[in-house]
Specification:
CATH class: Mainly Beta
Strand order of the largest sheet: 1-2-11-8-13-6-3
Number of helices: 2
Order of helices and strands: EEHEEEHEEEEEEEE
Helix content: 10-25%
Number of strands: 13
Bound molecules: succinic acid, fe (ii) ion
Length: 219
């Protein structure tokens, strides 16, 4: 169940505006745009060391989203469950360090979203190709829920599903465009969220893909 979208995916968004999602949740429109020039080459270095891969859910399903990580801790999934790990299970090596431009963006966006002193130790990098989706979930594998989540969108657009504190609560469809940054924490930290199946599209930077960085304080 959902009501009409806040915007059409074809609408261009207004960089510099904010879309409020809750008392302590918002989308900073276009906030990452001035950072892209530094983020993109740093991303290439990360994925050379730790390539995108499709993990398996605890239920044994292959995830439609491909992922990798950088930072001291990386989010992983396999048939034994979801967890943070200091080592990339594919290589046995530590995840690549969080590049300086990633840290800068995460901290600037958190501050702009009302969360000073955010120091993420984990950056999950998700790659969505058309058809990929992420079902409604809460981010709750972190040690505590004091720090916010900072979530950066690059490439082709998607509808973010923004739910309530209970799984059954109605989810709003919020379009996320290249350069948008969602920040949520405090009373909104455990809101259910997900991503609707992506439509066919291409973007000059990423081709037929959406790249999402999710910064968290996990350990
Ligand atoms: C996530 O919840 O891990 C990803 C959200 C997104 O791709 O925007
Ligand atoms: Fe999430």
């Amino acid at each position: 169940m959902s009501t009409a979208p806040l915007f059409d995916l074809d609408d261009h968004h207004l960089a510099g505006t904010e879309t409020r999602l809750g008392p302590q949740a918002l989308v900073l429109r276009g906030f990452a745009l001035p950072h892209v020039e530094r983020l993109w080459p740093a991303l290439q270095t990360v994925i050379e060391q730790a390539p995108f891969r499709h993990m398996v859910t605890p239920g044994g399903q292959r995830m439609s989203v491909a992922l990798t990580n950088c930072g001291t801790l990386g989010w992983t999934s396999d048939t034994r469950g979801y967890r943070y790990s200091a080592l990339d299970p594919d290589s046995g090596l530590p995840w690549p360090a969080l590049p300086a431009p990633f840290m800068q963006l995460a901290q600037d966006a958190a501050r702009q979203g009302g969360f000073a002193d955010f120091t993420p130790d984990a950056c999950l990098i998700n790659r969505y190709q058309p058809g990929a989706r992420m079902s409604l979930h809460q981010d709750r594998n972190e040690r505590d829920f004091l720090a916010p989540i900072v979530s950066v969108s690059l490439g082709i657009p998607a509808f973010f599903l923004w739910g309530g504190l209970r799984r059954a609560d109605r989810a709003e469809r919020v379009p996320l465009f290249h350069g948008d940054v969602a920040v949520w924490g405090g009373v909104d930290r455990l809101r259910f969220h997900g991503v609707a199946p992506l439509k066919e599209d291409t973007h000059p930077l990423s081709g037929a893909a959406r790249i999402n960085f999710t910064f968290r304080r996990a350990g």
